[in-house]
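Long-time lurker, finally posting.

We've been working with FHA domain-containing protein (Solirubrobacter phytolaccae) and I want a structural starting point before designing mutants. I don't trust myself to interpret raw outputs, so I'm hoping someone here can both generate the structure tokens and explain anything notable. Sequence follows.
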Amino acid sequence: MEPLTLGSRTPEEHEERQAAVDRGVPFLVFRDGDGRQRIFNLEASTDSVTVGRRYEADISLPWDPEASRLHAELSYRAGEWTICDDGWSQNGTWVNGLRLAGRRRLADGDLVKIGRTIMGFQQPGVGGPGPTMVEAELSSTPRFSEQQQRILRALCRPLFADGDGFNPNSDLEVAEETGVDVDIVTQELDLLARLFGLEDMPRPERRAEVALLAVRSGLVGADEGGGTQA
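Top reply, 14 upvotes:
Generated this for you. Predicted structure of FHA domain-containing protein:
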């Protein structure tokens, strides 16, 4: 099974994503406030890219109340894209579940969380001499196990059901659906919450936010959340 990613929901989105890959230029993919896929190409001729809630930002997130007006900056240095948050943001910038302190280099597949918006960094055709040991440790990309994928889909299932469908399944309901011990379900969902930078929230709110972020970002789509998983 493929690792969970910011998945395309329609053939049109898949074609748009593939076209971006074929261009061979690094890009960010994310969803706007209406759930539409957005792709921002990171051209080497661009020295820096600002991200924030204000409209003047290069990547503007006006729909995200948890993003700061000037939240983070991406810079192109020596053939590598880096991201920096020098204390500009109130809620922090998270890369692969770790709060960013200063600047770090981005690697293909990194997940960047700004406010409630999750961005996937894609770097088609990555080549070169390969990473050093330190680089490999710093830029490790989270990969979701099959068990975590099943748990996340089961958690989100009510969001795709007929009716209100706002509250996600409880840990016990997820355990019953997936056949995974409830204590393991709780541990896995707590781990996912940390990955999304939500560990400080109360557990019930944390579960709901994990589910909403997974759906908003495309980690779980209607085709995955609507049916019963074995």
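Before you design anything, note these points.
DSSP finds seven helices and eleven strands in the chain.
Residues 1-5, 128-142, 226-230 have pLDDT under 50 and may be disordered.
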